[in-house]
Amino acid sequence: MHIAFDITALAEPKTGIGQYRFNLLKEFINHPPSFHRRRTGKLRIVNHEFTAYGFNFRSYKNLKAVEKLFKNTKNLNFSLYKIPRRPLIMSWILWRWPSLDFFVKNVDVFHVSDNMQSPTRKPTVATIHDLSAVMFPQYHSKKNAFVDKCRFQQISKYADQIICVSENTKNDFLNKYKFDPDRIHVIYNGVDHEKLFPIKDFEKIQKFKEKYHLFHPFILFLGTIEPRKNVFQLVKAFYELKKQEKIVQKLVICGKKGWFYDEIFKFIKEKKIEQDIIFLGYVDENDKNALINASDFIVYPSFYEGFGLPVVEAMSCGKSVITSKVSSLPEVAGDAALYLDPFSINDIADKIFTLTKDLDLRKKLEEKSLLQSKKFSWQKCAEETMKVYEKAALHLL
Question: CATH: 3.10.310.70, 3.40.50.360, 3.40.50.2000, 3.30.9.30. Which one for 202-373?
Fold first, then answer.
């Protein structure tokens, strides 16, 4: 079976969607599953061929870097195009043109982009990571909300199979759009346990702290700085704790700037807490494990998530997590997190204060975190995804 796999997201620094695309591709190549199909009572085994395709103009070199990384890999080809992505997306929205069949030939199944249901005559699998822009358009630019609305409408009309990264995301989609529930499959994201794990070597953590000048205890937030992630409320809660001299930790915010973040920096400057809140920007994946391990604990007060990958990544490192009791987060974190109300600054502050003082609770949550993280792996995600490809390709029988 020839599977075309969109890697356009890898042109940018790897956030949640980029992690999903990269780790799935890596698993398909490193642990290639065989396609088992019963036909006339016999078991047929077919090896897979993959074509990783993508479109980008400004960051085309990043796509070529991915191709170089997987150079000489058996059963993997690349079809990369130096084409501006935004005009291409608008062309797909308005005219359903050009077809993916023009770019990638002889394909059995397309696992299409996470940004648009691209046109093709072949069977397609679409992944829905969340419905934030449809359910909470106030957290997004009008352009992003429009594109996502069009995308979900086209998914509901043209996709053969859909993957949702949580039961909550599946329910959100079905509440908004008409689609056969039997063709929607919940497949959880994974976590790379070989890269994200508890570090016992104190010297490694110290070297990391020196590299990033993190010389004080700190609480960590991981994620893009955008309204949905609730960074502003977190900063306000942190300020209240500092004003009352309740905590000694600093707040480290790690993630690229998204949109609508100016008020956060304005508030920090007005309250003169620049020395207590550290923005690291996007941190290289090779440093993420040390970053999480160096923190006291993680706070993730998001208003809405389709999955919540930073929560699982923190748990894989054996760190305690404070997160919101909304959307997919309780489904993913289980009983291994301390939950807060993301709409209450007081509750965010209270939960942070609790975990800074209650070391026994922090230790219990750390133990539970490791166990909870074992439920998620990219290998399991890849195996279940292959089964969805098989369902999409059933008309080939």
Answer: 3.40.50.2000
